[in-house]
Specification:
Strand order of the largest sheet: 5-2-4-3-7
Helix content: 25-40%
Number of helices: 5
Shape: globular
Length: about 180
């Protein structure tokens, strides 16, 4: 996941920092997380497959299923639809990343949304970056991680993907 930002724009905290245990839990997956979070982008590359995997959802798919388009409205909808499971939004990449239990990726068989696991790194924002910044385009927590290990249920993410997936879009069904 990339994190593009306007030149000279820094990502700033949108809310008070969450419980330190969430930060430390994320840091367990990557020893340099605090150092990387202290950069202007506020983003750390965390290896997937240890603490969690991530389902990559296109902005188009999420917005079409949600029936709304404003970032705050989409984020509220995601929080309700995924039972407050954590989701990262990369506005410059036009993607959302729903964090799911580690080990989900090998068994994920849904062409409309890839599940990224071991061998992949995900740009994870500082835990206090919880709102979209219009001019910075920094990744942020669309649905914040509220406690260590509290992830999206795979069935909830699958239901979201299937609600917005047209089977005719699969490669095998194209004429």
């Amino acid at each position: 996941m990339t994190n593009h930002r306007a030149l000279g724009e820094a990502c700033t905290a949108a809310s008070p920092p969450p419980n330190e245990t969430v930060q430390e839990w994320l840091a367990y997956a990557h020893p340099k997380v605090h150092q990387e979070w202290s950069s202007t982008a506020g983003l750390a590359l965390i290896p997937l497959g240890r603490l969690f995997d991530a389902v990559r959802l296109s902005e188009h798919l999420v917005r079409s299923v949600a029936g709304v388009s404003g970032p705050a409205t989409v984020n509220d909808w995601l929080g309700r639809s995924l039972n407050s499971g954590p989701v990262i939004h990369d506005p410059s990449g036009h993607r959302y990343y729903a964090l799911v239990p580690s080990g989900t990726a090998p068994d994920w068989r849904v062409p409309a949304a890839a599940c990224l696991g071991e061998g992949t790194y995900l740009g994870v924002p500082r835990t206090d970056l919880t709102e979209w910044e219009e001019h910075a385009w920094c990744s942020y927590w669309a649905v914040p991680l509220t406690r260590p290990g509290r992830l999206c249920r795979t069935t909830d993410v699958l239901a979201l993907v299937m609600a917005g997936h047209d089977p005719a879009d699969d490669d095998g069904d194209k004429p």
